Amino acid sequence: MTIVVTGAAGFIGSALMAWLTREGQDARGITRRRGHPGLIAVTDYRDVDGSSDDVLIHLAEPSGISGARERGSAHVAEVAGLCRDLLDRPWAHVVYASSGVVYGDAVALPRRPDEPVTPRGEYASGKRACENLVLSAGGTVLRLANIYGFGMTPGTVISDILQQIGQSGPVLVRDAAPVRDFLHVRDAVAGLAAAARHRPGGVLNLGSGEGVSIGTLARTLLDLAGETERMVRASVMAERSSHLVLDPMETTTRLDWCPHIPLAKGLEMVLRHTA
Questions:
Q1: What is the mean pLDDT of residues 169-183?
Q2: Using 50, 70 and 90 to split pLDDT, how confident is the model at 275?
Q3: How far apart are CA 252 and CA 264, in angstroms?
Q4: Cβ contacts of 197 within 8 Å, gap of 6 or more
Q5: What's the total number of domains in the chain?
Q6: Residue 68 maps to which CATH number?
Q7: pLDDT for the residue numbered 68
Q8: What CA–CA distance (Å, rounded) separates 67 from 44?
């Protein structure tokens, strides 16, 4: 079996390729970026070939919610069109990296894969459209929590806080109240690899099952960095609660997977790499 990874030069993709290499797994990484030794550069992901001996892990999508909002319905059409074309290949199995955002953020309990979803906005709608295509083809959908780690995409809440470490004055966050689920990238790629190996089909969550507020997250990073005197200040106060945590229990059962890196340890690892 060969595992084919689209988006192999991205944050999660590069960590996944490193994981598969360490595991001795035959893997083929595909990217649209030039200059990445060991990866296959293509102009269009539709040029990717697949066979009945290959498992596809599809990661190649724009990651930004704001960018998806700007592109509007074109974003949904673009990601769904690429997913549909990739599914035309004779893969042995397809694993699609979706997002917990399809659940919405209105329920203050860990979300389960069998619950109804309420995707809002173009980013979540694009994810849901691809989910439906993959599920119709008998594939596996993994809904990811907020993935963090060294090399994470700029513009995430953790990267924004990290940029303020070592400065003076309060650390600024947009809103300190929302509760989110954070999963270290090593745990995420272990789950993706397990899905390719077990080929369970259906929807599973990749999350820690534990929620932390953005304010507590910022406070933890400050304390780990030894900047205990600095305060955390929010620029806005939301009028409603926002909560999104993923229940990983079914994933543990079906993939023999569970997260191993607690948030405090994972944040400490990131701080060491960025110091």
A1: 96
A2: low
A3: 22
A4: none
A5: 1
A6: 3.40.50.720
A7: 83
A8: 20
Question: How many Å apart are CA 42 and CA 5, to the nearest integer?
Answer: 13
- Name residue, tokens 């979300």: 111
User: Can you tell me which residue has the tokens 């269009």?
Assistant: 44
Domain encompassing residue 139? 2-274
d(CA 255, CA 42): 32
Place of tokens 């296959």: 40
Is the CB of residue 202 less than 8 Å from the CB of residue 136?
no
